[in-house]
Amino acid sequence: MELLECIQKRVSVRSFSDEPVPEEIVLESIKIGNLAPSAGNLQARDFIIVTNKDTKKKLMAAAYGQEFLAEAPVVIVCCANLQRIRSYGKRGIELYCLQDVAAAIENILLYFVDKGYASCWVGAFDESAVSKILSIPSHARPVAMLPVGKPKGITHRTPRLNLESLVHREKW
Q1: Residue 32: what are its φ and ψ, rounded to 5°?
Q2: Do residues 146 and 25 touch, judged by C-beta distance below 8 A?
Q3: Domain boundaries, the chain
Q4: Among 51, 117, 137, 156, which is least packed, fewest CB within 10 Å?
C-alpha cells in the first residue's frame, strides 16, 4: 500500500476480532516506529508488548474502563525514556521525549494499516497505575497505549476540520 493510502485509511478502531497478531508483525511495527525522528537521535522511547489477558484487563481498568484494551489481541504501551533524553535538560524531559514517542506512534499506526491491522491511540489512562501494573521504572513514563488487531466490522473516518480552520499565514 502506498503511504498516502495508509494515511487516508488510518482510523481509530475500538472493536477487534479474536485473530492473533503475529509477533513478527508487532516487532516490525516497533522497528518501523523507531525509524521516526528523535531529538539528537537519542530515541528516548521504549515499548512494552502486552498479550496476557489478565494484564490487559488491568490496563483496561487503569484506562477508565475502555473495554477494547482488554479485547484487543495485543496492546503496545509506548513510553518516554526520561533517562535517555536527560542531556537535553528540562525541555527534553517535558517535551522532546513526548515528541519522540508521538512520532514513533504515527509510524507504528501507519505500518499496521499497511499490514491490514488497526489500532487506536489511547492517552486517557492513570499513568501511575499503568506504571505500577507494568513495573515501569521511574525514569520512564507511559505516554500512550495502542490496542492492535484486525478490525471487527466496517471502519469509518471521522470528519476533519477544513484547512481554513487550521492554517494561519505569517501570524495567528
Answers
A1: -65, -40
A2: no
A3: 11-166
A4: 156
- Let me know the angle formed at the C-alpha of 111 by 106 and 114, rounded to the nearest 5 degrees: 130
Question: Are residues 146 and 108 in contact, defined by beta-carbon separation less than 8 angstroms?
Answer: yes
Name the strands in the sheet holding 140-149, side by side, starting at the edge strand that comes first in the sequence. 45-50, 74-81, 140-149, 118-119
Kindly give the confidence (pLDDT) of every residue in the chain, 172 residues in length, as a single tens digit, with 9 standing for 90 and above: 899 999 999 999 999 999 999 999 999 999 999 999 999 999 999 999 999 999 999 999 999 999 999 999 999 999 999 999 999 999 999 999 999 999 999 999 999 999 999 999 999 999 999 999 999 999 999 999 999 999 998 888 899 999 999 999 999 9
Residue type, 81: N
